[in-house]
Amino acid sequence: MDLSISQMMDMQKALFALHENQWSPMEPEYGRDFILYMVEEIGEVIAILKKKGCDAVLSDADVRSAFLEEMADVLMYYQEVLLRFHVTPDEISRAYEAKHLRNMGRDYTKEYKELYHNG
C-alpha cells in the first residue's frame, strides 16, 4: 500500500464528515489549531524516541506500532491543516517537488557557514 496525498485528504474529509457537528469547520481560521495539534503529535513521537530509543523502534514490534500510530497522527493533522487552508493535492505536490529540486542544488555546508560564521 502506498497512499497518495489525494487519498489521505479524502480519508480526512470522510473522517471530518462523521464529526462535522463536533469539529471546527474546514476554514483557514482554524488551521492554526491543527498545526498545534500536529506539533503535539510530533511531541508524542519524540517521547517514544526519548523513552524507548531508536533501536526499539526498529526491533520491538509494540514500540514500532506506537511510533507508527503517532506518525500517522502527524500526517492526519498535516492533511487537516492543508484542507483548512484549501490546499489542493496538486498545489502541495508542486510545492514539494519545487522545494526538493531547490534542495538538490543547495550547498548546506556553505549556507550554514555563511549564516552562522559571518557576523
In short:
Helices cover about 80% and strands about 0% of the residues. The chain has about 120 residues and is an all-alpha fold.
Number of strands: 0
- Major β-sheet profile: none
Shape: globular
- Kindly, what is the distance between the CA atoms of the first and last residues, rounded to a whole number of angstroms? 49 Å
Oligomer: single chain
Radius of gyration: 18 Å
Helix percentage range: over 70%
Question: What is the SS-derived class?
Answer: mainly alpha
Count of helical regions: 6
What is the typical, i.e. mean, pLDDT?
95
Output the helix-strand order: HHHHHH
Describe the structure.
By secondary structure, the protein is mostly helical. It contains six helices and no strands. It has helices at residues 5-19, 31-52, 54-59, 61-84, 89-104, 108-117. α2 (31-52) packs antiparallel against α4.
Helices, strands, pairings?
Elements: H1 5-19, H2 31-52, H3 54-59, H4 61-84, H5 89-104, H6 108-117
Helix pairs in contact: 1-4, 2-4
Task: List its salient traits.
mainly alpha; globular; 78% helix; 119 residues
